[in-house]
Amino acid sequence: MLTPEHIALQDSVRQFIAREITPHIDEWEAAEIFPAHDIFKKLGNAGFLGVNKPVEFGGMGLDYSYEIAFCEAIGGIGAGGVGMAIAVQTDMATPALARFGSDELRERFLKPTVAGDYVVCLGVSEAGAGSDVASVKTTARKDGDDYVINGSKMWITNGLQADWMCLLANTGGEDPHRNKSLICLPLRENGKLRPGITMNKIKKVGMWSSDTAQVFFDDVRVPQRYRIGEEGKGFIYQMKQFQEERLSGATRRVTALMNVVHETIDYTRQRKAFGQSILDNQVVHFRMAELKTEIELLRSLIYRAAQVHMADGDMTELASMAKLKAGRLCREVTDSCLQYWGGMGFTWDNSVSRAWRDLRLISIGGGADEIMLTIICKHMGILPKRAA
């Protein structure tokens, strides 16, 4: 699927990573945050935050295959949290706005986000509603020309730095699949949180360089014209947006996992035991070959899903399969490779232990493995549609 133009894009992204990100990773991991506004502005200046976004709103206007190529490239960042934060900006919180938002909204929110002037976050999950999106409790009550928002959101990547949130909230009605809307909610004014918005930082097992927040809303006003698309269709829009999030997550892991394998090959080639390198043991080098084969199979599945998406098909089943496989491979590859690093693998400051911590998230975030299995079963005709 990758042409010389795709490869050129990836080369440019890798050069950016080597220059602007890699030298600072250890510092950002220790601080448990990275300077999103600074890095995103530089990414925006290079055009990387709008690869497949409309040209009229600052994007490159390229097809979705180039976004997949971009995701592969940022998967090579040595800290998963930074790549994830970038992906929120490009593939998690903006696809619905780009596709269904009014021109006013896209000018007000999408254009500066693509430029890197704004940092965005996605507000879907809650303390009592993670993978079960239909159960979110946050409300947006109509009052004149405004919505008045009350509730809270959990696990919000970029939340501590975000300028606005793509918020899913209940806007009226009893049907949990038809009573929700997506809203562009400004979080800050003049660099400070707006009245009625408070946040708590969440400390995580991995993805340390990415800030994560719990966000609370107490009578927060937002104009109704900041709603994305039609009222009551937020659940549908978010389900579509999830597909690009899930495929982005799987794609980034392809590069990250391949890096873990290659780093393990290098380490075990140098490490000696009983008169030979660890890599000389057949069980080790055969295992590396098996893992690389599995990763390449995942890449092929991702490319197939992307091609369906570019042809205006429904990639839901394939994207769910890719995310499921990526999550399971993240556990298998990082655990297998960490074992071959021996005691060094159980220390904090090395690439394989960081990958072991960071990559575990994909089986949970953006829809747990069990949700992916349910979706796949629905498409197989095993479960009724409402069950998934």
From TrEMBL:
GO CC term, one of those recorded: cytoplasm
Cofactor(s) of this protein: FAD
Superkingdom, natural source: Bacteria
Family: Belongs to the acyl-CoA dehydrogenase family.
UniProt keywords, alphabetically: FAD, Flavoprotein, Oxidoreductase
GO molecular function: acyl-CoA dehydrogenase activity; flavin adenine dinucleotide binding
Protein name: Acyl-CoA dehydrogenase domain protein
PANTHER family hit by this protein: ACYL-COA DEHYDROGENASE 6, MEDIUM-CHAIN SPECIFIC ACYL-COA DEHYDROGENASE, MITOCHONDRIAL-RELATED
Domain (Acyl-CoA dehydrogenase/oxidase N-terminal): residue spans on this chain: 3-117
One Pfam family this sequence matches: Acyl-CoA_dh_M
Acyl-CoA oxidase/dehydrogenase middle domain ranges (all copies): 121-220
Biological processes per GO annotation: fatty acid beta-oxidation using acyl-CoA dehydrogenase
Domain Acyl-CoA dehydrogenase/oxidase C-terminal: 232-380
Organism: Verminephrobacter eiseniae (strain EF01-2)
